[in-house]
Design brief:
Subunit structure: Composed of two chains; the small (or glutamine) chain promotes the hydrolysis of glutamine to ammonia, which is used by the large (or ammonia) chain to synthesize carbamoyl phosphate. Tetramer of heterodimers (alpha,beta)4.
Number of helices: 11
Number of domains: 2
Region (CPSase): 1-197
Catalytic activity: hydrogencarbonate + L-glutamine + 2 ATP + H2O = carbamoyl phosphate + L-glutamate + 2 ADP + phosphate + 2 H(+); L-glutamine + H2O = L-glutamate + NH4(+)
Distance between the termini: 48 Å
EC number: 6.3.5.5
CATH topology of the largest domain: Rossmann fold
Radius of gyration: 21 Å
Bound molecules: glutamine
InterPro entries: Anth_synth/Amidotransfase, CarbamoylP_synth_ssu, CarbamoylP_synth_ssu_N, CarbP_synth_ssu_N_sf, Class_I_gatase-like, CPSase_GATase1, GATASE
Structural class: alpha/beta
Length: 389
Amino acid sequence: MTTSPRGSARDKASPAVLVLEDGRSFRGRAYGAVGETFGEAVFSTGMTGYQETLTDPSYHRQVVVMTAPHVGNTGINDEDQESRRIWVSGYVVRDPARIPSNWRSRRSLDDELTAQGVVGISGIDTRALTRHLRERGAMRVGIFSGDALDSASGKGAADGAALLARVLRAPEMTGAELSSEVTTAEPYVVPAIGTKRFTVAALDLGIKGMTPHRLAERGIEVHVLPASATLDDVYATTPDGVFLSNGPGDPATADLTVVKGVLERGTPLFGICFGNQLLGRALGFGTYKLKYGHRGINQPVQDRTTGKVEVTAHNHGFAVDAPLDRVSETPYGRAEVTHVCLNDNVVEGLRLLDRPVFSVQYHPEAAAGPHDAAYLFDRFTSLMEDQRA
Ligand SMILES: NC(=O)CC[C@H](N)C(=O)O
């Protein structure tokens, strides 16, 4: 959330401290912008793809801890950003690259974080921090450096109690409505690549750039709509299908009017991540907060409709509470759980048996990540084809 960047490259070696809401703290060095920031501390296990992680709007208000020890080696390029800016509210790395090296690199990660006012910390034991978050669960955190650190005591030494008090004043992720803070201000169209076959209305609840691209690759013209779009706005695009994007925040806060309207009409519907949670809630299932969530690009998921296991990209802290072992009756007909995470049996996908509607809890667009789940975009295309026939 609040970021108050100050200082210059000269301050980079200055001390920084990370304070968790349960009182544990870690001392390191300022990385990126100098100042203070707050958010929910979460860890990501991706070994690559930090640029995509940083620019994924689903990370809005989260302080991301990288479990990969070396971060920033390939710098920042002009091609891999998933949205218009960095969304993480803070960034935690063990050992940042001193000299980035890649043929596409335009600037260093450190400089990019500084330019965008993202406060980070480096030089801390990220393995110990990750183990702590695994044991205790995701929780609020603050990072303090420069004046923000000095002013806590007024004498230059950090006053732990004062910093902790500030962390405890930060808002929690549970109950947070954040889609409205990240969504596009205006609708826009991503044209189909090649021959146009379908039109899809995509609700931008925090969409990543690769997602409309994956649809466009399949001959879909994508009308990306703000999160505030009404059912009339959706149908004004004369869609063959509706797409519900990923996004930050607690799904329990979302307005389900549009989703329910689409379900009533029986238009083909595909949701990912936050979209899966909204579909689940519209069907009458609950959502709950996971202890520490799934974030990274190596999460094993089984598609129970085929038995195949896919390695997938995840970024979620909430999950749908639906029975794994039976078909459920919902206001829109029978529903079943189609995908399950093999690490912990968390629901990773849903479908309706009587309507062309399905969703997954993860990121089939895979930016970054393996492309195992790309078939889901083809499933969506088939549903739209069947609806036409
Ligand atoms: N990537 C997403 O869409 C995340 C969904 C939701 N904000 C969660 O944390 O579970």
